[in-house]
Amino acid sequence: MVKIEHKRDVAISADVVWEEMRHYDRVLNWIPRGDESTITVTGEGVGAIRDIQLATMGFVQHKLEAYDDAARMFSYSLTDGKPLGMKEYAVVATVTPTGPESCTIRWAGQMIGDGSADENAIGGALEQALANMTTGIIAVLKGETPDFASQPFVDD
């Protein structure tokens, strides 16, 4: 099991960032080739399932495990698919105010590899995917085109 974390300080208010991130169905807006991918969400609130067909990695399914609007936090886990060589992972996303017009976006969790590659390398790939999601969120909010970093196990 590998612990993962990505956090970035952002010069956008926590309320504005959270208003974008809080929507479980918007993930395709934040990722490379999201416009070529599809998503279906079944259910509402904790327990909701999102089925994602990623142009970059194929099928992935997540379950919303926790959601706290007031704390600006949600968590989800992998329930199907093996993206980036993972067989299990769970991630907690938080948005924490650092000032009136600034915040920290943080993704943290843990993952277990499927044995196809070094588990630490797979964990690093997940951290890069979360970093790219953060880049995508910021770009959406600023009306800019995201400049995504190369994604290990996808762009290799």
Q: How much of the residues is beta strand, in percent? A: 35-45%
- CATH architectural arrangement: 2-Layer Sandwich
Average predicted local confidence, pLDDT: 95
Q: Provide the structure class.
A: alpha+beta
Number of domains: 1
Q: What's the Cα radius of gyration?
A: 15 Å
Biggest sheet character: 7 strands, antiparallel
Principal-axes shape call: globular
Helix content: 10-25%
Number of strands: 7
Order of helices and strands: EHEEEEEEH
Widest beta sheet: strand line-up: 1-7-6-5-4-3-2
CATH fold annotation: Alpha-D-Glucose-1,6-Bisphosphate, Chain A, domain 4
A few lines on this structure:
With 156 residues, the chain is of the alpha+beta class. Helix content is 21%, strand content 42%. It has a single domain, classed as START domain (Alpha-D-Glucose-1,6-Bisphosphate, Chain A, domain 4, 2-Layer Sandwich).
Characterize the structure shown:
- The protein is of the alpha+beta class and 156 residues long.
- The chain has a single domain (2-142), classed as START domain (Alpha-D-Glucose-1,6-Bisphosphate, Chain A, domain 4), CATH 3.30.530.20.
- Helices cover 21% and strands 42% of the residues.
- The protein is built from 2 helices and 7 strands; from the N terminus they run E-H-E-E-E-E-E-E-H.
- It has helices at residues 14-21, 119-142; strands at 2-10, 38-42, 49-54, 58-68, 73-80, 86-99, 102-113.
- It has a 7-stranded antiparallel sheet with strand order 1-7-6-5-4-3-2.
- A hairpin with a 2-residue loop joins strand 6 and strand 7 (102-113).
- The longest helix has 24 residues, at 119-142.
- The chain is globular and about 45 Å long.
